[in-house]
Amino acid sequence: MRANWLQSLQDIDRHYPRPAICDVLSRPENADLLEYVVRDPFGCHVFPGDIDDFPLPHFFRAMQESLARAPYLHLWAYIPTCRYKCHFCQFPTVIVNPQSPRAPALFRDVVDRNIQEARMWLAQLPALSEVPVGEFNLFGGTPSLLPPEELQRLMQFYRDNFTFRDATLRFEGEPGTLTRPFLAQLRELGFSKLSFGAQSFSDRLIKGCGRLHQAETCYQVIRDARELGFALISVDLMYGLPAQTVDDVRDDLQQARALDLSHLVFTKLHMKPFAETRTGVSAAGENAWQRRDATLPSLGQQYQMRALAEQWLDGDYLEHPTMYFHHRSAAPEKWKAMITDLDQQVPEVAIGLGGSSKCAGAELINLTDYAAYQRALDNGQQPVDSVRGMSPAQQAINGCKMALSSLQPLDDAVFRQKFGVSLFSQPVIARALAELQQHGLLHRRDQTVRLTPAGRVLVEAIINTRFDASLNL
Ligand SMILES: C[S@@+](CC[C@H](N)C(=O)[O-])C[C@H]1O[C@@H](n2cnc3c(N)ncnc32)[C@H](O)[C@@H]1O
Ligand code: SF4
Asked: 197 CA to middle of ligand 1, Å?
């Protein structure tokens, strides 16, 4: 097996330089990192607890304690409806033809359920209505499918029941549904940030993903959003897609730079869920490409694609956290910084199908099947799939992992103040950091650690392989 993986690392496009990371991954000491990137789980968004079957009331108690200390929270609502299913997507979705006779009732139901679940959260945690929301995210799925009256009703509920005084409002849509009238309604409702998936600016690749829009649709959305006064526009691009070449990625990055976007999310295609049911990102079963066993670019080419992003964006854009690039003139993506930066790491509450909520002491993931989600709500139950608690040691470990994923330097004084233990004395963390330093993946100067360029490229693998308490103690 390992021989095949090493061969895949060697397989590069000769017109581009061989990425230095191929040598790093070939070293025996990094065999676990290589295995991780071959297995390819989506592991940079969820930081699991270490106490299984944590009782729900304990979760609410932990959340209440976090909220009592939190300056603000990240609140998100997830709308699962989509008009088609992309071949790469493992997000929990409900597919609907918006023109079909059943569509209006379904959209009403989705909004009703979201509000119903939010009311359950508020009943359990009255503080939720008082802690200022730092950023409110309307995520999808495709919330841009919602009819105007349903969107209005949903937003009115959130504004009436949460503290939006200082909140930034961000909306995630799908380009084919982000019409100018819809964008105008978003502005009226107070949204200032817009995000959508392009995946690529090549019509061939967009079609290959099973998506029903074109590159031109994306350009039009950007023009309209600018004219309507959106302050920030973020576009998702993916690399490592079937039939995608290194040239294709260069063209996409060139195009992205020409568009002068405030933010760009540049994600490698992940084909395996983080764990079968342990993520709000990818829990709803295999995607179409997994079922078909699609052929992907080699590992060597994937890292050439990643290297191009650094080369093309360097100078104009900064990466913070991993995969999220912001223009020099814009702040880092606020919601990501709020949950990963060491000096923040505020609680987040996610309402909707597959939502993933987290505070210092526990994390919770919602059901990902819409019928089961509906049944739970009909029975007056919180629609939870699983809850895990975090021991004090795991809280410190997760705090360190999240901070590493932010790609910002870690200051031990800040860490100690937050977790009551030093990075260099907590046994799992100290051992992992020392090993990473020895292997050239991390620098330490006095009380501050920062990832090296190789460490930054491999951060997802690093945080998911090197901080396992059961392996290190
Ligand atoms: C849930 S989508 C929401 C955006 C919107 N529904 C759209 O498609 O335009 C968020 C982003 O996650 C990324 N994504 C989804 N599945 C992925 C996968 N398997 N691997 C890597 N990125 C993925 C895509 O870039 C997508 O735009
Ligand atoms: S990528 Fe976006 S549009 Fe495509 S199925 Fe997933 S959530 Fe829906």
From this structure: 6
